[in-house]
Amino acid sequence: MDLDEEVDYCPFRRFTRESLFNIERRIAEEKAVKQTEKTPAETDSSDDEGDEPSHHEPELKPNPKLEAGRKLPPSLEDFPAHLTGRPVEDLDEYYHNQLTFVVVGKDKTLYRFSATDAMFVLSPFNILRRCALYVLVHPYPFYI
């Protein structure tokens, strides 16, 4: 049970089919909320407001410390070695509802990739795509 507790507190989780399903579910929920906000009854009663955006939540912006191409910040330096070069769920809240995942290279550099099918054929879980990602993020691909 101690191992499960450690996994729960670890900010790094492998990007799995379940992760992709959860992202797609959050995107669908977000679209549903936007649709309910744009009901005809509300637009008729709020003609005075015009097209002002609703200010329910503050506008999220990407975290500059977790930008693609940068090294992991010191607070996240304890990256597990077994996840190096493998797809990990995105750490940045800005990308929480976007189809992306992160790969951390051996030199602790962040690389962000799309979770959509590459070339309309290769899913993020395809072995060819995973091997290509591993080679791409390796700091010295010709020195194995």
Describe this structure in words.
The chain has a three-stranded antiparallel beta sheet with strand order 1-2-3, with helices on one face. It starts with a helix and ends in a 7-residue tail after the last helix. The longest helix has 21 residues, at 17-37. A hairpin with a 5-residue loop joins strand 2 and strand 3 (110-114). The chain has four helices and three strands, in the order H-H-H-E-E-E-H. By secondary structure, it is α+β, with helices and mostly antiparallel strands. It has one domain. Helices cover 32% and strands 9% of the residues.
How do the helices and strands line up, and which of them pair or pack?
Layout (H helix, E strand, L loop, with lengths): L1 H8 L7 H21 L2 H6 L41 E3 L10 E5 L5 E5 L12 H11 L7
Antiparallel strand pairs: 1-2, 2-3
Summary?
With 144 residues, the protein is α+β, with helices and mostly antiparallel strands. The chain is built from four helices and three strands.
Count of helix runs: 4
Bin the strand percentage: 5-15%
Could you give the order of strands across the largest sheet? 1-2-3
Helical fraction: 25-40%
Q: Helix/strand/pairing class, anyone?
A: alpha+beta
Region (Disordered): 29-83
Biased composition (Basic and acidic residues): 29-41, 52-70
